[in-house]
Write a structure and sequence with these properties.
The chain is globular. By secondary structure, it is mainly beta. The chain has one domain (8-368): Neuraminidase (6 Propeller). The chain has two helices and 26 strands.
Length: 375
């Protein structure tokens, strides 16, 4: 039975839609020389780390302002690497094994299949979920054709960025979206603590073939000095250990990852705070069925992103690595499915707002003394 919710089927979305101006905080794109003068650099720090060569980097296209990637396994056994182009308002589809650009999807607008500053993206089964900051919604498309099916969240989301989802029971998806709304005339002022109780929005989504329905299940966010989420984007969950990790990007407060429970409450601990030299961004999980594994978290230096690795269960630090040519990472994604080129899986990271980097998990595991496989 469909959930009673303001889901907008894709066909109905072609009717008049009222759009309000975006109200989020984001960093305007800077020229490389300008960024180099005022952003932290890993080379200027004394943080010990290993260097791991990228398996490939996709062709650069600075106008896209590439943000978040996700991976999807095709029916033919291939792997697509799908990412968001915030400035071109498109989805980019690359071959996940070679990095070759396969196609572009969409363009700017409110209609089905169009986007307005897409940010978070998440492939689940044969469905793709895309968060659009300036359309203030989540759009659902079917794969492989990128056929628009529905949108939801227009009445609840103010400035959405990241998303994470899981399927607690067949056909029902539980989805969380970070909402980084701001105050001030220029939307660059962090709201007072009492207003931060709505940083994470939760939805239940039912999928029955091409029929998609959703229900808003409420908002959460700690309002204490220690647990509040001031500037948010990336979010990822771990069902086996009842954890949500949310990147706190507010550097003056102490950037790192807040640990929340699935009930929406702050767990009373963080990871990375005091250890990160730049800014916490994307986070991904390498997971084994027994609950063990690793978290990989991006520290966004301009010259070379530093990736911190933590034990999945204890959250203890396991090491750090950087690529040879990967910097200014926003979103990341881990695809554990084996392939000929990546038999132990592959880690993807956005690179300098213009491309995507791929790292063979075998190379990371070897450099840091980690497990290559779950068995």
């Amino acid at each position: 039975m469909p959930l009673p919710s303001p889901v907008r089927p894709a066909l109905a979305l072609g009717l008049a839609v009222l759009l309000l101006p975006g109200c989020a905080l984001w960093r305007d794109a800077k020229e490389p020389d300008e960024r180099a003068s005022d952003e932290p650099r890993l080379a200027a720090s004394d943080i010990a780390h290993e260097v791991v060569a990228e398996a490939f980097i996709t062709p650069a296209n600075p106008p896209d302002e590439v943000d978040s990637p996700t991976a999807w396994l095709t029916p033919e056994g291939g792997r697509w690497l799908i990412s968001t182009g915030k400035e071109t308002h498109q989805l980019l589809v690359h071959d996940g094994e070679t990095g070759a650009l396969l196609r572009r999807v969409g363009g700017k607008g409110p209609a089905p299949g169009q986007f307005n500053r897409p940010n978070g993206v998440f492939a689940w089964g044969d469905r793709l979920f895309v968060v659009e900051r300036d359309n203030r919604r989540v759009q659902v498309l079917s794969l492989p054709g990128f056929t628009p099916l529905a949108t939801f969240g227009e009445g609840e989301l103010r400035s959405p960025y990241g998303l994470w989802l899981h399927e607690p029971e067949g056909g029902r998806i539980e989805l969380r979206v970070t909402d980084s709304f701001m105050d001030g005339d220029d939307y660059d002022v962090v709201p007072p603590l009492e207003a931060l109780s709505a940083r994470i929005k939760r939805f239940s989504v039912l999928i029955d073939g091409d029929a998609v329905s959703a229900r808003f299940d409420g908002a959460s966010g700690d309002t204490s000095e220690a647990g509040a989420l001031r500037v948010v984007e990336s979010i990822a969950g771990d069902v086996a250990n009842n954890r949500l990790l949310v990147a706190e990007e507010d550097v003056p407060t102490g950037t790192g990852y807040r640990v929340y429970g699935f009930d929406g409450g702050y767990a009373g601990r963080d990871i990375g705070v005091g250890e990160f030299g730049a800014q916490a961004e994307g986070i991904a999980l390498w997971a084994c069925p027994d609950g063990s594994g690793y978290w990989i978290a991006a520290d966004q230096f301009i010259d070379a992103t530093l990736f911190h690795v933590y034990d999945r269960q204890t959250l203890e630090a396991k090491g750090r690595f950087a690529g040879r040519n990967t910097g200014m990472t926003d979103g990341v994604w881990f695809s554990q499915a084996p392939s000929t080129r990546f038999p132990a899986g592959v880690f993807y990271a956005s690179n300098r707002d213009e491309s995507l980097s791929a790292f063979d998990w075998r190379a990371i595991a070897s450099a840091l003394g980690l497990r290559e496989r779950c068995e």
